[in-house]
Protein 1
Amino acid sequence: MSISETMQSTARDLLISGQVQRVIGFEASPRGRVRPAIIDRPEEAERLVWSADCTHNLTVYLQRALNRDNGHASREPATPPARVAIVVKPCDSRAINVLLAEHQFSREQVFAIGMACEGIRQGAPASAPEATLQERCLRCRERVPVVHDVLLGEPPSALPEALPDEALAHVRGLPPAERAAFWLNQFDRCIRCYACRQTCPMCNCPTCLFEQEDALWVGMRIAPSEKRAFHLGRALHLAGRCVGCNECERVCPMGIPIGLLNRHLAETVESLYGHRAGMQAVLSPVTGMLSAEESAP
Amino acid sequence: MYEPKVIGFLCTWCSYTGADSAGTSRLKTPWNLRAVRVPCSGRVAPELILRAFDQGADGVLVLGCHIGECHYDSGNHRAAKRIPLLLSILEFAGMQPERLRLDWVSASEGDRYARIVSEFVDALRPLGPNTWRISGAAPRTGAAIGVPLPLVSGLSGGAPCP
């Protein structure tokens, strides 16, 4: 039985037995790759697929499914499902932990279908033989989701060596003036479409700070300084929370390397506080009190 | 001669009074610091500091109560957690780290206040003017917009962004 078939039967069983009312997974897209799928009926479970193209971080749909509305106005049921099953890769599963720590939903509301992950391919069509792994996957060594209720697939026994983050080291190695020019050049392309924010499971404020017309200190204009403040500010809001799924960078229509900012802060948080987001369901150390041994500055 | 322009966010419960105390004891303090009185150093969100730099500040000094003496128990803890990260990302985005400093000054420590401000301004002077502000960026209150909208069908080209 292929991995997709295993996933379909798992989802079908969960829906038939009533353990979950909804399954969030992937289905084949008409454009040859995959897209997110939301399954409410057992007979629809055959749409589900799993492949090395399943790049989306589906946890962004979790809160909407569980707390706010049913996500799709035209769909039944109108009441939020009590429990939702979600297909997660190791990186996505860490997002569940962060959201649990922030009390966005409870553990009982989520059934995590963990996938043993060998890395996700880059954006080429699935059929392209030369498709290589995404860079984030080459740097990643996690193969088994941190949060899972059932694990599908076999985690590979021999791990390839994780690659160093060359892009990050390169930007860090630039002289300050060149670094400033580099980032201004990047931020200048931003069109403030907020795709990075929409796709981020951690960006879940009901009203975004950067989209308030009356915000005194942040601007909404398409001016380079305000775009810079948006990106730096958003990175700060994700400090200690970002799990590095890199969806923000993937969806950016202007190709801004947003992931660099997030990875830089993730490393800073790890070196300052020894915290990696989502490895356990604990809050970011950035929002709390200083521990006894810390006394900054 | 170049003199740095410094924005100081001073906690009203301690360092703002500390600055007063420096004044009443006739201590010489640099005039470069423009004080902004805030209820707590924990009120100083990173966005406020970013805005100060965007508007042309050469340095930003955040002064709060010593750890354990916060009027609101944990506001200065929050500042102590946040500002090192802001410093880290500002440095990553190309700013000199000397331009932002967080320190603690209690209400009675006028001498400490004077010393910290002098030290900070002295450290800024050799750096020269901050290049962070994007020249031509209109002030937020102004109607003029620095960058015109790209041509979008249905919109007149280059119309100012509302």
Note: The longest strand of chain A covers residues 22-28.
Protein 2
Amino acid sequence: MIVLRRLATALPVIAGVIVVTFLLTRALPGDPAVYFAGPAATTQAIEEIRHRLGFDRTLPVQFLDYLQRLEHGDLGTSLTTGQPVTTELLTRLPASAELMLLALFLSVAIAVPLGIAAAMRPGSPVDHVCRIVTTAGVSLPTFFTGLLLVYVFYYLLGVAPAPLGRLDVFDSAPPQHSGFYLIDSLLAGDFETFRAALGQLVLPGATMAIFTLAPLARITRAAMLGALGSEFIRTARASGLARHRIVFVYAFRNAVLPVITTLGMVFSFMLGANVLVEKVFAWPGLGSYAVEALIASDYAPVQGFVLMMALLYVLLNLVIDLVYGLVDPRVRVEA
Amino acid sequence: MDADNAVPLLAVEDLGIEFRTRSGTVRAVDGIGFKLRRGETMALVGESGSGKSVTAYAIMGILDAAARITSGTIVFGGLELLQASEGAIAEIRGRELAMIFQNPRTALNPIRPVGKQIADILLRHGNVTAAQAPSRAIEMLAKVRIPDPERRARSYPFELSGGMCQRVMIAMALACAPQLLIADEPTTGLDITTQAVIMDLIAELAASQKMATLLITHDLGLASEYCGHIAVMHAGHIVETAPTAALFAAPHHPYTAKLIAATPGGAPNLEALAAIPGALPDLRREDLPLCRYSGRCERAAPACLDRPLPRRAVSEGRGVACHFPL
Amino acid sequence: MTATLRHARYVLSENPVTAFAFALFFLLALCAALGPALAPFDPLASDTAEALTGPSAAHWFGTDQLGRDILSRIVVATRLDLGIAVTSVALAFGIGTLVGLAAGYCGGWIDRIVGRAVDTIMAFPLFVLAMGIVAALGNNVANIVYATAIINLPIYARLSRSEANVRRNAGFVEAARLCGNGEARIVLAQLLPNIMPLMMVQVSLTLGYAILNAAGLSFIGLGVRPPTAEWGIMVAEGASFIVSGEWWVAFFPGIVLMAAVFCFNLMGDGLRDIVDPQRRT
């Protein structure tokens, strides 16, 4: 099936990712064992770590070791918390996922209509707004936008809650089903928690959305302009089809193809911006985990984080490919 | 020719169209006029850039945003198209008045099955229900002689050959039995055999539906084979109109004569096949001579530059715009 | 050359925003070049009595938590930020372009290896990869430069590869070959100048992205350490004061950062207007 075929093309990419992350774990200047043992380790502890993590073996053997451990889902242990990295990453995944999905939803909900409207009325105020959003949005540093939003909406206007994570100190998390507070609180019928969680999500979500808005609006506008000027639209007009049918069924469905392709780039940005936004808003997700570990010179979590984000990215690209194939019949036909 | 229809189906009079471009205003069409009666076939012949496609677009009302109609009237079935409301035009476009284009594969929506594209038009104009539309679309495909129409209705344009795509476009255009079909270079880009087949198909369907056809082409030979009347265009002017046989027997405009001589089949042998000297004048010029052919004409006289062109009716159905006709 | 300049002047006069971007670029370059000479105060001098005062006549951008003048620190930081960006983009451009040219021109196994390497880099979310590289190689400014260079390399490699592929058998290349030019010489002397305009546009755009990247990395604590003045780290230091209302500590470095990125993006767009042959009338 097509899914399997696409998965097969992703395999060499995944292989490359694993090799690179392996090399990153071994690229530390000096003695890696010292790093993994931590600053307070005795010589004996260092030797133990060296042996346990296989630093005293040859590189190819270390690589096989690494592969074996990956197979068991073992990404090492965090020095600062003492917990297995894999467990911690998986626990924190829903927090980041909820944030990113909300940002993606907001972003698409604003960028796509804006791009369509701008393409349909070139030179109008809407078009100018779109141009401004597109040019300015790409230049905005995510962390700066976040801070600005906090200042305006929390400090000045007082409408947003304090940027202290997913829930206020006084609220407690809903019973765990998906890990998404919005979904879980609704499942439990707890509207108070739902509102609280949503309130905390708005600012970080908006920060990320502003960042990804720009490329999406730009590509939607360009793609719609291209589609609206194409020959088959001329035929559709000559056939007397109704305007909304021409714009949405004929033009937009064709324009959406480059937009789907751009989502790949958008995800790359988003996974990176995730780190910055989580730091600003003290969001207990993957990004802040990595940053805390970095500052503490705790390397296993950082490397686990890089690997997980990369694999997530490969998976997202795969999904994008499949969605593209659903919309465009031309790629479904295998030569 | 339908002699008892005195009122023409389509009457274009003194039409002028210009385009605003970065390098100036292009006076693409200047004061052209012609009439087409029900069931008649007419060709608008000219080199590229002569303004024939632009005229067709103006009739259909699908001109570019940069285009401006500066003068004239287009009356179709009693309705003045240039003054009509958007609603009135939307009613007839695709239903009474239809058009097919060149490059059929790019003229169709690449990601929509062809059957659905035909059904869209039927649903818009054709008084069919959503349930009936798919089968009516298949009927249309059969009518344009596409083999295995049920399966083909689910095909996408990229799965069909150029000839088949053109048949699909014809099916789309004829779905609501229009009174006038405008065909803009329908066979350019198709191979010779397919060209003949497509033109025969159009001719046959037009005859059976008593539909008038306006063929836009640069190929005088094609025009002579399939059309009863020919209007020759040059640089935005119609230089001569005549019934086909009369045009070939005795052309009145020097440009027409040159075109005939340049058409394979119009000359006795390859050596005698002439080229037309010169090129189209730059239509952005403010100081265009009143006869735009005068720059290429060996019979040109000072009068050709500044005396307004006579639109001389030579006889019934014939006209020529020249001070010194042949 | 003069035709290009004339067209450049036309574009700039038509588009005041682009002209503004070029002007801003010169201002930034000036700050980077002259640095400490332009700063009114010593960027490292702390004066705790003056700590956290808002913008005033004496301190246009206010002072931070150690009483240091923010304007001075921003001016001095320009050199560091632009330096990091320019160096990393120069590396990415230099290595990426050559590698891509070789891949596109020679094809074969070179193409496959380069393709595989580029695809592997692009398989990572780029900022995350930069984090990983800096974490792996060590936390200092040099590694920030290398990491930023690595993640920007693919763009140049891909661009020059496709251009080389297209022009591989072009007329002027054939002519050079017939004149007896060696392959390497053809690549450097013929192909490279031909794709330069496009690459210049890309360089300008990448500079903006590189500044954002470097600032992002220092925001999370990588690379630059206090008390060094750098835009990203200044925003990070100011972040904790936002919630208590001392907005200027983070605001001004952030605005300048944004302006710099904006400037390079606009310049890139302007350069594209000048250089893209389709726009030449």
Note: Chain A touches chain B through 23 residues (CB under 8 Å).
